[in-house]
Design goal:
alpha/beta, Beta-Lactamase, Alpha-Beta Plaits, 4 domains, ten-stranded mixed β-sheet, five-stranded mixed β-sheet, elongated, transmembrane helix, GGDEF_dom, Diguanylate phosphodiesterase
Length: 647
């Protein structure tokens, strides 16, 4: 397109030059013709007046002798002294273009003639109208013809260019269609454009399109590589760098479930039992460190088995695939894991680390069925002891009732704990900030099996609530706490006891708790019952009934894990709790998070206006404690302040 514009420009310049040269030659011809006409007219006038006298110079005689006036524009007769005796005609205006040229060349000038006696002097200007008209017609004709000669090819070439462009576009489009069609079924680039159809469309384009095909093929490989990298990132767990659940499902389906060759092996599920507790009491950063540590242990132990694969399925679960590992070797895997978990537990002063459920698999077995079996194995492991593992064999599942076997085993373990009252009570103090602030010590529970092995607390309480046994567990904890307080004679201390939301909303539990507290009326004022904010929100009417009862017997209420829900302060004004305990997620990184600082300060101001004290939990460092103090909270709790200890 740029070349075509250049052509138009050159044609236009050529036309201007040709017009200028042509105009010059036409003007020169006009000047020459006018000069000849003037010389002829002067010769004619000189011959006419040679023998004439003044009396012969009449208008009629002059017109008769010197034509009818078409030859001269003006004709002036003067005497010997130069006075005008006679003047014929008037100066005529030439056409516009002729007038410009005549003035430029000074072509038409007055002419003079004198007779022999020199008593008659003639001055005349010829009439050049005919030459001027001819000049103007010639100029216009020359300009028009030159313009046609110059611009007709442009319009013609423009039409050719459009047609050529359309043909090229169609050729390229058809060639691309052929390329796309061929590349749907072939990988040969060299033969993509060697068909007769493409050659007919434009043989000159084939080499270029072959180069384009090579380029697109290389880009396709780059895209495939990038897509693979993106897929790997999308299938990767951020904290541990392991493959996530999607990668696990894809691996199992392609390598095991849909495998052509017969294969067998072991699938192990590892569940981190203390993640929730660590997140709440030590902060999410510690929780991530805990997960990475468990991941490292699992990778180290499984790395001794050829072809092993490790995945992180969700926040607390890992999956390990051990190809070609029979049940006997799987038991050794479980033993090694338990030993490593126990060692880490002792180093980190945890109640437990993780449990493992182990099952065997064969190729072709659906993943959903296998996960159901391994989940049963996990339930069995959790009901044994800290860091326990359980290998689920086919012979263990009788009459295909495996789906409920794990729950039944948990129910047995929880019932045995309740009946045997095997609960250990720990205590963690809340440090008050300020002289007039009243704080208390939170009582925390640990549970043991009949073999005196510690059960994972979070799993135990979750299963108790799932199996609708939480009320009995809460009753066991409260009874044990009251008995311990009486026997230890803690007259000056105040104690916080956790109550599940399901118990707080149960009329049967509320009636039992009121009677129990009235029985030991002197201890009721020493107790503070902690219920989660989320739990209270589930049934506001029942929550208010529970809190009113607690206040009626002289005890107090703490709303724990505050800030994770959407409860308004109108809700707290109606329920009238005594304390709120900010969720540990607000304490994590508090020294750097200005938003959390602002939120906590706002909560403190609002809570103090309605007479509620505010505690912070999960304080893990000196910096966090300092920030909490500057935000005017009433107390702090966490591993930096004090670790849980036996009462």
């Amino acid at each position: 397109m740029a070349g075509f514009k250049k052509l138009i420009f050159l044609q236009f310049i050529s036309w201007l030059l040709f017009s200028a040269v042509g105009s010059f030659f036409v003007a020169s011809s006009f000047d020459s013709a006018v000069s000849k006409a003037q010389m002829s007219a002067q010769q004619m006038v000189s011959n006419y007046i040679q023998e004439k006298t003044m009396t012969d110079m009449t208008p009629e005689h002059i017109r008769l002798s010197l034509s009818n006036g078409d030859v001269f524009s003006t004709f002036i007769v003067r005497d010997f002294s130069g006075q005008n005796i006679l003047q014929l005609g008037k100066p005529t205006q030439l056409p516009f273009l002729a007038d410009i040229i005549a003035n430029s060349f000074n072509s038409i000038r007055p002419q003079f003639a004198v007779n022999k006696t020199k008593d008659i002097k003639i001055e005349f200007v010829i009439n050049a109208q005919s030459q001027a008209s001819l000049l103007q017609q010639s100029l216009l004709l020359m300009l028009v013809i030159s313009a046609l000669v110059a611009f007709i090819p442009i319009f013609y070439m423009q039409a050719i260019y459009k047609k050529l462009n359309r043909n090229v576009s169609m050729t390229v489009a058809n060639a691309v269609d052929v390329y796309i069609t061929q590349n749907q079924v072939t990988e040969s680039i060299e033969e993509d454009f060697n068909t007769g159809k493409v050659t007919e469309l434009g043989a000159e384009l084939a080499p270029s399109f072959n180069r384009l095909a090579h380029f697109l093929k290389s880009k396709q490989e780059d895209i495939k590589s990038a897509a693979h990298s993106i897929k790997q990132e999308a299938y990767k767990d951020v904290v541990t760098g392991l493959g996530n659940r999607n990668m696990f499902v894809e691996y199992y389906e392609h390598q095991i479930e849909q495998a052509n060759n017969k294969s067998f092996g072991t699938l192990a599920m590892i569940r981190c039992s203390e993640l929730q507790m660590i997140n709440q009491t030590r902060g999410y950063q510690k929780g991530d460190e805990y997960i990475r540590a468990v991941s490292d242990i699992v990778k180290h132990v499984s790395g001794t088995y050829t072809g092993s694969q490790v995945f992180r399925l969700n926040s607390s679960d890992f999956a390990v695939i051990l190809p070609n590992v029979p049940s006997k070797e799987a038991e050794q895997f479980g033993e090694t894991l338990q030993a490593r978990f126990t060692q880490y537990q002792q180093n980190q002063e945890l109640a437990s680390v993780a449990n493992a459920g182990i099952v065997s698999y064969e190729s072709g077995k659906p993943l959903g069925e296998l996960l159901s079996v391994v989940d049963n194995a996990m339930s069995m492991a959790q009901s044994k002891q800290a860091n326990a593992w359980h290998l689920q064999r086919e012979s263990d599942i009788v009459n295909n009732v495996g789906a409920g076997f794990g729950n039944q085993n948990w129910r047995r373990v929880i019932r045995e704990v309740i009946d045997s009252r095997r609960v250990n009570l720990m205590m963690q103090n809340i440090m008050p900030i300020g002289k007039n602030v009243k704080a208390y010590a939170e009582i925390q529970s640990r549970f043991k099996t009949e073999d005196n092995q510690m059960l994972p607390t979070a799993s135990f309480l979750a299963m108790a609530e799932k199996l609708e046994m939480a009320i009995e567990i809460d009753q066991l904890i409260i009874d044990s706490s009251l008995e311990l307080i009486k026997t230890r004679n803690f007259n000056e201390k105040f104690f916080g006891i956790n109550v599940t939301a399901s118990s707080a909303h149960s009329d049967q539990f509320v009636i039992w708790l009121e009677r129990r507290l009235l029985k030991d009326g002197n201890l009721a004022s020493k107790l503070i019952f902690e219920v989660s904010e989320f739990g209270l929100q589930q049934n506001i009417k029942a929550s208010k009934r529970f809190i009113d009862m607690v206040h009626r017997v002289g005890a107090r209420i703490t709303v724990e894990r505050f800030g994770v829900g959407l409860t308004s302060f109108k809700f707290f004004r109606d329920l009238k709790p005594d304390f709120i305990k900010m969720d540990a997620s607000y304490t994590r990184g508090l020294e750097e998070d200005k938003n959390n600082q602002y939120f906590m300060r706002l909560m403190v101001d609002l809570a103090h206006r309605i007479g509620v004290s505010v505690f912070a939990e999960g304080v893990e460092s000196q910096e966090e404690k300092h920030i909490v103090e500057t935000l005017c909270l009433d107390g702090v709790q966490g591993y930096y302040i004090e670790k849980p200890k036996e009462i």
